[in-house]
């Protein structure tokens, strides 16, 4: 199956695209977009944007989200990120910026587009890559989780010294396929208002990431 995805990722994931589950997933997703042309997010052209923005060879950090924002105009293919003109910011993203301010003193942003992180080697990956308008988790269990498991497996098999930032229990389950001896795994509660005060605030994952990258002679992220 020919999938339109960034070339370095395409070579890594080519066998995955041939799996029966992926063919079923593609059929499901195509039908969703065709029957609800304005009700599935992100836009079809942005489903694999995280891979376009951060090629395989450039990955230094992985931040794992759950699924795209189900609010119209928010999701654009990068986890936790929103289009530049979105106001107000989603509460989870605002909490991320609050923690970034507390950790590194970076002023709290009003622009929620995180593409500049991706361009520096931060793979902003959701576990599920599509969603129905107004219905969080609506495309869970359709095959996306198997695909993103394969993404993590490929990174673990072929790269070392990667930082995995896993917020919340669902993201943390992805760590099962990561070698903690050859990479850094950072975990905390999710930044959502329901759980951020249980340990997300104060986790200092941004500074810990940069300290680790510098310790292995990689350039830090300009958060």
What does this structure look like?
This protein has 223 residues and is α/β, with parallel strands linked by helices. Helices cover 34% and strands 11% of the residues. The chain contains 8 helices and 6 strands; from the N terminus they run H-H-E-H-E-H-H-E-E-H-E-H-E-H. The chain has helices at residues 7-13, 20-35, 49-53, 91-104, 115-118, 144-158, 169-172, 205-215; strands at residues 40-41, 61-65, 122-126, 131-132, 163-167, 184-188. It has a 4-stranded parallel sheet with strand order 3-2-5-6. A two-stranded antiparallel sheet has the order 1-4. Helix 7 links the parallel strand 5 (163-167) and strand 6. It is globular. The N and C termini lie far apart (37 Å).
Q: Level of helix content?
A: 25-40%
- Judging from the principal axes of the Cα atoms, what is the shape? globular
Structural class, by secondary structure, is alpha/beta
Number of helices: 8
Q: How are the strands of the biggest sheet laid out side by side?
A: 3-2-5-6
Name the assembly state. Answer: single chain
- How many strands, what sense, and barrel or not for the largest sheet? 4 strands, parallel
DSSP strand (E) fraction? Answer: 5-15%
**How many β-strand stretches?**
6
The poorly predicted ranges are none
* Mean pLDDT over all positions: 97
The end-to-end distance, rounded to whole angstroms, is 37 Å
| Rg for CA atoms | 17 Å
H/E series, N to C? Answer: HHEHEHHEEHEHEH
